[in-house]
Design a protein that fits this description.
Helices cover about 75% and strands about 0% of the residues. The protein has three domains: about 70 residues, lambda repressor-like DNA-binding domains (434 Repressor (Amino-terminal Domain)); about 60 residues, no CATH class; about 140 residues, Alpha Horseshoe (Serine Threonine Protein Phosphatase 5, Tetratricopeptide repeat), CATH 1.25.40.10. It has about 300 residues and is mostly helical. The chain is globular and about 70 Å long.
């Protein structure tokens, strides 16, 4: 994409409507950022570009067209940003994007695009607002936007079903959680031709977590091993640390500390590779406690 073309057009339109860089930046970003965008040094995020287009009185797709970029890129950029913020647990920033895009006809006039927003909106209400009833209602609405018994389950519908399962697990409704996961498992099996290969990893890992909670440690470990095999086969990094930790945790709960330690060490290495300081610190403390326990003499 030619960033400079879009930057020049923003500058041209800004001057045409009589706005300064500070005027355009207000409630969107800094004046310095507008300056860099207009020079072509940086490309604005999808949400910022939408807000800029509103101030300049043009449709956001105008910028994608002059940049010789398909309109689909806008959706992909918003989805990328939402995913990044969701994974990093920056849920307030994630909700800011949702609120902005809900006003965008590009989203609210298309059920699949609107589903993306509602899914993330429900996560915000569950995790931040702790409004379980509203979160479930929004997530059901998101799922029903595209779900139909006479069509195959889409990958986003699979992710929504996994979200239902995660929430039911947190609420202690393990049978309900497994029901949701079984729906996803059934939907994946016919072909397993997933575009997003990590969906299967998340499914297997979350099933393992439920099985650990109901004290079926051996089955939980079996699912973790399936997930690890899948990650290696598909060259996926996410899930390896989680699954090695879960196996180690299962061993710990069964008092098999000598088996727990090597799996925890593998988990620690995987989280180090992902630069996840929170989990590396947590697992390091677990390892120290486990190793001290192994070394203690039997009384």
């Amino acid at each position: 994409m030619d960033y400079s073309v879009i930057g020049k057009k923003i500058k041209e339109l800004r001057k045409a409507v009589g706005l300064t860089q500070s005027d355009l930046a207000q409630d969107i970003c800094t004046q310095a950022m507008i300056s860099r965008i207009e020079k072509g040094d940086v490309y604005p995020s999808a949400t910022a570009l939408y807000q800029i287009s509103n101030k300049l009185g043009v449709d956001v797709n105008y910028f994608f067209e002059i940049g010789t970029t398909p309109r689909l890129d806008y959706l992909q950029e918003v989805e990328r940003q939402l995913t990044k913020l969701r994974v990093e647990q920056l849920l307030n920033e994630m909700m800011d994007i949702v609120k902005t895009e809900e006003k965008n006809p590009f989203f609210f006039k298309d059920n699949e695009r609107l589903q993306l927003l509602y899914w993330h909106k429900s996560i915000y209400y569950f995790e931040v607002e702790k409004d379980v009833e509203r979160a479930f209602a929004i997530l059901h609405e998101a799922y029903n936007l595209t779900s139909h018994e006479k069509k195959a389950v889409s990958e986003r519908e699979m992710e929504i079903l996994i979200t239902f399962g995660i929430w039911e697990t947190q609420l202690g409704n393990h049978d309900k959680a497994l029901d949701y996961y079984q729906q996803v498992e059934k939907a994946i099996h016919p072909s397993e031709q997933l575009h997003d290969k990590s969906i299967k990893t998340r499914l297997l890992y979350n099933i393992a977590r439920v099985l650990t909670r109901v004290k079926d440690f051996e089955s939980s470990t079996t699912y973790c091993l399936k997930a690890i095999h899948w990650c290696i086969e598909e060259e996926l990094l996410w899930g390896l640390g989680e699954c090695y930790y879960q196996i180690g945790f299962n061993c710990e709960l069964m008092n098999e500390y000598e088996q727990a330690v090597p799996n925890m060490k593998k988990a620690h290495l995987m989280f180090e590779l992902r630069n996840n300081k929170l989990y590396t610190s947590f697992i390091k403390e677990k390892l120290e406690a486990l190793e001290n326990g192994i070394q203690k003499p039997v009384e």
